């Protein structure tokens, strides 16, 4: 028997689950269809950075909005997400990099945003006593933070369930078609709703393409390293300006290192593969920035499948071709922080047709199909 709702969400990551939660809080009936389990891919295995720092300028207003939600998210969900407020610092290893940061702060200030600030060398050493001597300064957002991705996404899904959202895990969408309403056919059932959100991550481009909307999503597999416990030496989340790095010491003393070096992702088999030469480069960068890491022991590593767009910013907003179809995908390895804010924004847009944010930079039709 066909199941119906006001909204069907395809994808049970942080963006799909957050939109479902906020839509339910607006009184909508919602079904989430997830081909695996909630938080199985990018939303459960990312680095956990809750970061406004260094974002594409088009993302800044939405990221700011999301940060305000993050500050009260654990209370809202009634769950421990592992969220801690902490400085996010992008270190500059030479004066040219520091000058680029100064120019960015000026641009943000002209836009009316003041969350990013320049740190000179003594200030960087105040926040990062163990940083290498050659670091000359940095760019910081002092009230960003980090969280546990799997805890957070599953907590959002639990709260959504309490609000009436129905999660259908382990169901693969076979087709999406529109007659009067949208009909979603899975390998197990049929669902209908007047509105559908495509939040299918690395698989979202194929879904959009089946409806005539070109979305060149690249499946990527960012890789992470965790070390054995070390004495406390870092209270910030640290990146580098000129090379990939995401670095933080957890409360238990372990160090989580990532930053964008990639393995191989395969959406057909639902898997990712580690590339250990690339992991070696990640470890080398960490040791360059923090010499204390030269004695650290790596205890495990992992990767997950994420969706990346060619311009490294997501697709957010309504379909360019179809009424009642919306997109939220392609967050390009930096979507975790934006999850709650984007979800709340999309829920409002889906229910009312309007939003306070300018989403034009994220429009799906910004990409020209090949040979056009």
Folded structure, characterized:
The chain has nine helices and 23 strands. The longest helix has 18 residues, at 60-77. It is α/β, with parallel strands linked by helices and 372 residues long. The mean pLDDT is 96. The protein is 28% helix and 27% strand. It has two domains: 3-47 and 150-213 and 311-366, FAD/NAD(P)-binding domain (3-Layer(bba) Sandwich), CATH 3.50.50; 84-144 and 222-303, 2-Layer Sandwich (D-Amino Acid Oxidase, Chain A, domain 2). Strands 4, 5, 6, 7, 14, 15, 16, 17 and 20 form a nine-stranded mixed β-sheet that branches. The protein has a six-stranded mixed β-sheet with strand order 8-3-2-12-23-22. The chain has a four-stranded mixed β-sheet with strand order 1-11-10-9, with no helix packed on it. The chain has helices at 14-25, 42-45, 60-77, 95-111, 121-127, 149-162, 204-209, 276-289, 339-352; strands spanning 3-4, 7-10, 30-34, 49-50, 84-92, 117-119, 137-146, 166-169, 173-178, 182-186, 190-193, 195-198, 218-220, 223-227, 237-240, 246-249, 255-258, 264-266, 271-273, 298-303, 306-308, 315-318, 325-329. Pfam families: DAO. GO terms for molecular function: oxidoreductase activity. This is FAD-dependent oxidoreductase.
């Amino acid at each position: 028997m066909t199941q119906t709702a006001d909204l069907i969400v395809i994808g049970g990551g942080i963006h799909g689950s957050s939109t479902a939660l906020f839509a339910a809080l607006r009184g909508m009936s919602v079904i989430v269809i997830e081909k695996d389990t909630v938080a199985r891919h990018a939303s459960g295995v990312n680095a956990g950075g809750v970061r406004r720092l260094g974002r594409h300028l088009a993302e800044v207003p939405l990221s700011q909005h999301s940060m305000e939600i993050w500050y009260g998210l654990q209370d809202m969900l009634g769950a421990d997400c592992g969220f801690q407020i902490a400085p996010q610092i992008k270190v500059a290893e030479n004066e040219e990099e520091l000058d680029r940061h100064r120019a960015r702060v000026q641009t943000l200030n002209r836009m009316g945003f003041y969350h990013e600030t320049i740190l000179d060398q003594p200030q960087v050493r105040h926040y990062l006593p163990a940083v290498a001597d050659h670091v000359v300064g940095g760019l910081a957002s002092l009230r960003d933070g980090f969280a546990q991705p799997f805890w957070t996404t599953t907590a959002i899904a639990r709260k959504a369930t309490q609000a009436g959202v129905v999660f259908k895990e382990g169901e693969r969408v076979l087709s999406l078609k529109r007659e009067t309403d949208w009909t979603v056919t899975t390998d197990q059932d049929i669902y209908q709703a007047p509105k559908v959100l495509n939040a299918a991550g690395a698989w979202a481009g194929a879904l959009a393409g089946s409806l005539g909307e070109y979305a060149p999503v690249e499946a990527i597999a960012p890789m992470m390293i965790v070390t054995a416990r070390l004495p406390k030496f870092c209270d910030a989340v640290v990146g580098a300006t000129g090379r990939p790095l995401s670095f933080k010491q957890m409360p238990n003393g372990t160090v989580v290192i990532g930053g964008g070096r990639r393995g191989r992702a395969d959406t057909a088999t639902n898997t990712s593969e580690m590339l250990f030469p690339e992991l070696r480069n990640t470890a080398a960068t960490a040791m360059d920035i923090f010499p204390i890491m030269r004695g650290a022991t790596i205890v495990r590593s992992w990767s997950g499948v994420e969706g990346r767009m060619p311009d490294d910013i997501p697709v957010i907003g309504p379909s360019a071709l179809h009424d009642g179809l919306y997109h939220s995908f392609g967050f390009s390895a930096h979507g975790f922080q934006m999850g709650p804010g984007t979800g709340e924004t999309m829920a409002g847009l889906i229910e009312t047709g309007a939003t306070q944010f300018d989403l034009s930079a994220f429009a799906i039709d910004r990409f020209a199909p090949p040979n056009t």
